[in-house]
Specification:
With 664 residues, this protein is α+β, with helices and mostly antiparallel strands. It has helices at 5-13, 19-27, 30-44, 59-79, 84-94, 99-114, 117-128, 280-310, 329-364, 371-399, 411-418, 428-444, 461-466, 480-503, 508-514, 516-539, 548-566, 568-573, 579-596, 600-605, 611-614, 625-635, 647-655; strands at 134-137, 153-157, 162-166, 174-175, 186-195, 198-208, 221-225, 241-245, 248-251, 260-262, 268-270, 312-313, 323-324. The longest helix has 36 residues, at 329-364. Bound molecules: ligand LJ27NJHV and flavin-adenine dinucleotide (FAD).
Length: 664
């Protein structure tokens, strides 16, 4: 058997559910499925969007090629009159980080959220037509996580009615802003506002960086690229920049003034809008990142699942075929929880999008009541989903054995592009510590304030602290109420225990720092409650299609019981479960894997990923892996000639024992 074509045809026949209906369930609606399918095909059939050769290109060529793709995409958007939703799908399928990400997902949202009506009227039409290109310059060489610690200054000059933007130290150089090194004409620069020698907090300022005619940096601005990043191709299509400001003057009306204003006289006016709204763009992007995690994880899982069905090792009898590696229980116990996680993250991402839309509408109406919860949810779920996705992609590489390490497997570039999501938009530990602040506050108020939203389960604190799990058989774990209650009890007990230990410290901040590792674990437990509960809520909805709901139920139990198994130390230590019950959950998990097994290929087909998006020989839809790997090896430019450069100069003299006289 040369290729794996026949294996995947057989695999697809085993499916016990309607794959087309599952595609709709994954996409969210029939309309969403059709839209995304149309755009995926548009990209896959356009040679300009080819990306297989990307990891072989040098930086300059890679970058220029990326600029070409963006220009072509923008032309398509205009010619085909694509909506903003369609344009964002186009970006997803082109699958290449570019300056437009910052323009559309940070520059524009920052003006929308923090600008006054007048500022929005001026800047948004220009940005939406790409007549100005903006980036988001917050992080500095010496300061990233601690936004209040930024050093760049914006000093008001009442003489000229301008702000003077300045980088007083080397460490205050802006460092990382995407799109800035070579492309953006403007940036939202976060800086310390100084009025009459007084510091008034960090604010955002729209600063022009480049001349719109000839693209040269404006006087007082030193700008460049920060250098190559992890992996070939990957995030190197993005020009992450360094900027140094030397007393750059900007008009007063270029400070984003929804949250606070500076008058013509240089007076600081604090409105009723909470200062945290300055961080609103980050809340928006964190929510986007959660929605995107399932896309990245599902790609890796699709590759590893298809390849696991093609790959055979051991067990051949009488010259018959060896065993498909997907049939090994160990392979299933590593792969199927990731498959289930992709679905879990998809549904929690959908919910978070809804939550964000709700919060945004409230903020527009000056209702800030749900902001703390939205911040905690976006920060925590960003942390949970990106950490699990980054680890999951690496696990998928290992699940593909040696071939997973080849660039042509598609996994190394996916990993290299994805991992910074654990750091950007808030380091994942720093984000979990934000959840911890929220949890500690919730727990400390339990006696007199009813928790709401995602912490509402803590209203039953007494029951959750005192009652224990009633499961007696593996079968009894197949009950959503039982599973959710176990997660809620473990989370409540961990949060309350942290609260009790914190209360023993005289200085709460000192206590928080001392217990921070435990607080991060309690925060993770709470975020897992959210993911598990949102999966259950999804299952309570009508889900059409033969067998679709049943398979999603199986995936729910795989996701939840796998987490329970992985974190069984917490469940046992908090006393909610007995070792016997934890062991029964694990028995059930093995049974569930055998229910996933016949459906595994159909479940990854339901992601509807094109071969273009996967860009992976191992994950090809037709499973024709070996002939294509062989072909790709000989198509590699390194194999253009049998004698590589340098062989005659450095190897032959060694073979001939003539190194002493060779010119090295
Ligand atoms: C090619 C095709 C072309 C076609 C084009 C067309 C379309 C293109 C479409 C593009 C689509 C692209 C899709 C891509 C997806 C998106 C990718 C975007 C790329 C991202 C790149 C990365 C960018 C960045 O990284 S930007 C920098 C991010 N930086 C951070 O995240 C810094 C993290 N630090 C912080 O947030 C803060 O410093 C913090 C929170 C850690 C501490 O802040 P502070 O010290 O001020 O607060 P505390 O004292 O801890 O808390 C005070 C109080 O405030 C509360 N709080 C904190 N933060 C928030 C918040 N955000 N919201 C609300 N409340 C907040 C906190 O809880 C405290 O509350 P208390 O009640 O007082 O406890
Ligand atoms: C690919 C990429 C693109 C980016 N794009 C942009 C952009 O467009 N615009 C922009 O402004 N920025 C951008 N950034 C910067 C990014 O937002 C920051 O790197 C990120 O916020 C983390 O901050 P840091 O680098 O200062 O990490 P640090 O805070 O220095 O983290 C280092 C370590 O310290 C730990 N740590 C830090 N603080 C605490 C704490 N309080 N308690 C416990 N542990 C702590 C962290 O967990 C981590 O392990 C980008 C970064 C990357 C990698």
């Amino acid at each position: 058997m040369e290729g794996g074509v026949d294996y995947l045809i057989d695999e697809r026949k085993k499916a016990q559910f309607d794959v087309e209906a599952m595609k709709v369930a994954w996409a969210g609606s029939r309309q969403a499925f059709e839209l995304s399918d149309r755009i995926a095909k548009l990209v896959a059939n356009d040679p300009i969007f080819e990306k297989f050769s990307r990891p072989m290109l040098g930086r300059k060529e890679l970058f220029k090629n990326s600029l070409r793709k963006v220009a072509h995409a923008w032309k398509l958007i205009i010619d085909l009159r694509l909506s903003e939703e369609e344009a964002k799908l186009l970006r997803h399928y082109i699958d290449e980080p570019a300056y437009t990400d910052l323009q559309w997902e940070m520059f524009i949202p920052a003006i929308e959220g923090q600008g006054t009506e007048e500022q929005k009227r001026k800047w948004l039409p220009l940005a939406r037509k790409m007549q100005v290109i903006g980036s988001y310059a917050q992080t500095e060489l010496g300061h990233g996580s601690n936004v209040q610690g930024l050093e760049t200054t914006a000093t008001f000059d009442p003489q000229t009615d301008e702000f003077v933007i300045h980088s007083p130290t080397l460490t205050s150089s802006k460092w990382w802003p995407g799109g800035t090194a070579k492309v953006s004409t403007h940036a939202i620069v976060y800086a310390r506002l100084i009025l009459d020698g007084q510091f008034h907090g960090v604010h955002g300022f729209i600063v022009q960086l480049r001349n719109l005619e000839n693209h040269t940096p404006l006087p007082g601005i030193t700008v460049g690229d920060i250098g190559m990043k992890f992996g070939n191709g990957a995030y190197n299509t993005m020009d992450n920049g360094v900027i140094r400001f030397n007393h750059v003057h900007i008009p007063r009306n270029q400070m984003l003034m929804r949250v606070s204003q500076v008058t013509r006289e240089g007076k600081f006016v604090q409105s009723d809008v909470p200062r945290q709204l300055l961080y609103g763009t980050m809340v928006y992007v964190r929510q986007k990142i959660v929605a995107d995690a399932s896309k990245a994880l599902s790609r890796a899982v699709c590759i590893a699942t298809r390849y696991s069905a093609v790959r055979r090792q051991f067990g051949s009898r009488n010259g018959g075929p060896e065993i498909q590696v997907i049939d090994y229980k160990t392979q299933q116990s590593r792969l199927f929880p990731l498959l289930a996680s992709a679905y879990a993250f998809r549904f929690v991402g959908e919910w978070l999008k809804w939550l964000y839309t709700d919060v945004k509408q409230r903020l527009e109406a000056n209702d800030f009541s749900t902001l703390p919860e939205a911040h905690a949810c976006t920060a925590g779920l960003k942390s949970l989903t990106t950490s699990a996705t980054a680890d999951g992609i690496e696990e998928c590489r290992k699940l593909c054995g040696g071939h997973g390490y080849l660039v042509s497997s598609g996994i190394p570039e996916l990993f290299a592009t994805y991992v910074p999501a654990c750091t950007f938009e808030g380091d994942n530990v720093v984000m979990m510590l934000q959840v911890a602040r929220f949890l500690v506050k919730t727990v400390s108020e339990l006696g007199y304030k009813q928790p709401v939203g995602t912490t509402a389960y803590m209203r039953r604190v007494t029951a959750l602290m005192q009652s224990n799990c009633a499961v007696r058989t593996a079968e009894e774990w197949l009950n959503p109420g039982v599973v959710v209650e176990a997660f809620e009890a473990r989370s409540t007990r961990m949060a309350v225990a942290c609260g009790q230990r914190l209360a023993k410290f005289e200085n709460p901040e000192e206590g928080f720092a001392e217990l921070s590792a435990d607080l991060v674990e309690a925060s993770l437990a709470h975020c897992q409650v959210i993911v598990v509960s949102k999966f259950v809520e999804k299952l309570q909805q009508e889900i059409p299609g033969k067998g679709v709901k049943r398979l999603l139920e199986v995936l729910f139990y795989v996701y939840a019981l796998f987490l329970l198994h992985k974190h069984q130390g917490d469940f046992l230590a908090t006393g909610y479960l007995t070792p016997k019950q934890a062991s029964l959950a694990n028995d059930q998990l093995r049974i569930l894997y055998s229910k996933v097994r016949p459906n595994a290929i159909a479940l990854v087909d339901s992601f509807n990923h094109t071969d273009h998006l996967l860009s992976s020989i191992l994950g090809r839809y037709d499973g024709n892996v070996y002939p294509k790997l062989y072909e790709a090896a000989f198509n590699d430019p390194f194999n253009d000639s049998d004698i590589a450069d340098g062989i005659h100069q450095y190897v032959q003299p060694m073979l001939r024992q003539e190194l002493h006289s060779a010119k090295l």
